[in-house]
Amino acid sequence: MYTYKVRDAKSGKVIEGELEGSSKEAVIRALKESGMTPLGVAEKKTDGLQKEISIPGITDRIKAKEIAIFSRQFATMINSGLSLLRSLYVLEEQTVSKPLKKTIGEVRASVERGASLSVALEQHPKVFNTLFVAMVQAGEAAGVLDETLERIADTLESAAALRSKIKSAMAYPIVVLSMVAGVVTLMLLFVVPQFVDMYADVGGELPIATRALIGASGILTSRWYIIFPAFGGAVYAFRRWINTKGGRRLWDAFKLRAPVFGTMNHKTAISRFARTLGVLVRSGVPILEAMAIVELTAGNVVVGDAVNRVSQAVKGGDSISKPLAKEGKIFPPMVVQMMAVGEETGALDNMLDKVSDFYDREVNDTVDALTSLLEPILIAFMGATVGAILVALYLPMFNLVNVIG
Asked: Which overall architecture, per CATH, does domain 164-405 show?
């Protein structure tokens, strides 16, 4: 999230606000695309604990699913003939989430004072992002607000379902590896020292594996007050680093090339690009403005930069597919070809929907395949790790039995 101060080119007024974006440069470009002259843009500082932990009833985070439900209910009411204000009143009354209820009330109050719905929503960038506001604005202008809200709900629900499946796939290996790390740490701290005393009484030379295990246990038990804080400090430093401009760029590039999960992240990014651009084009948002919004909501700096280069070429008179073909590392040939056909036939939005649907299926298949592949591998790894520690611990006993025998 970034705070900005701009001068309106038409009125000359200085305006301040907040805007989501993948980088400071992306926000500046989006503001310029909107006809504003940026006077200052800065990243909004957020408390780390509040940013990372969401506890229902304690933090004010509003889930994407809640926004999707709000959009669909709003669309149904508008389609049924209820006025804008009446719909907002009803939504405010029936919404359970306190943060969302408060936001709807503030939006209703702004509309009562004469603001358009899109302007009222724009005052709450943490809840209604740039994509949401731009689509509502286009829907208002075309007189199809109900249809636009339905599209927003569809987009949010699809994105939420995909994100949930990816999180569940990534959660399993994280949980298993955390369990392995926890078990190994406990064994090194509490189990291995018991064997150290026993082997010290017996005497004799221990096997290399046992000596290595005892050495690791000795380091951990005698230096735990250094090791654990150092680990925590490394995690904190890494999180700070990926929030820097250079760190974020390198981290996002790594996510697209990472072993195992890189392919899934890449396909997810393409799906997000196609779905966002498609829904904006269908809603009547001008192509350059749509590209600027896609760049801001790309979710990956590397993908956002590629979209920006395509946007600059389109501004210079090119079609979308021509500069898109030059970004082969991000956009596969199939995506380029389908968008070229869409431009030629005047059905770009439909083609983008097909691209998005295709990559959604690809991501689902990849997630299922990864889950099936990783589950036995991780279980075997966990068993092998614990087994190796136990063998190293009992190896001297086996040797002693052989000697006695």
From this structure: Up-down Bundle (1.20)
Expressed in percent and rounded to 5, the helix, strand and coil fractions of the chain are 75, 5, 20
Residue 13 has pLDDT above 60, yes or no: yes
Specify the 3-state DSSP secondary structure of 139. helix
Does the pLDDT of residue 322 top 70, yes or no? yes
In tens, the pLDDT along 56-115 reads 333 457 888 899 999 999 999 999 899 999 999 999 998 888 999 999 999 999 899 888
Nearby residues of 50 by Cβ (< 8 Å), 6 or more positions away: 59
The SS3 of residue 180 is helix
8 A C-beta contact, residue 293 and residue 134: yes
Is 310 in contact with 327 (CB distance < 8 Å)? yes
Alpha-carbon distance of 200 to 189, in angstroms, equals 17
For residues 328-358, one letter each, b for 16 or more C-beta atoms within 10 angstroms of the residue's C-beta and e for the rest, the string is eebbeeebbebbbebeeeeebbbbbbbbbeb
CA dihedral of residues 59, 62, 65, 68 (deg, nearest 10): 170
Q: d(Cα 311, Cα 308) in Å, to the nearest integer? A: 5
CA 349 to chain centre: 24
Provide the sign of the torsion angle of the four alpha carbons 120, 22, 292, 335, taken in this order. Answer: negative
Residue type, 230: A
Query: What pLDDT does residue 35 have?
Result: 66
d(CA 265, CA 182): 28
CB 288 within 8 A of CB 314: yes
Tell me the β-bridge partners of 332: none
CA distance 267 to 332: 10
- Laid out side by side, the sheet with 14-19 consists of 14-19, 2-8, 36-43
Q: Where are the domains of the chain?
A: 1-45, 164-405
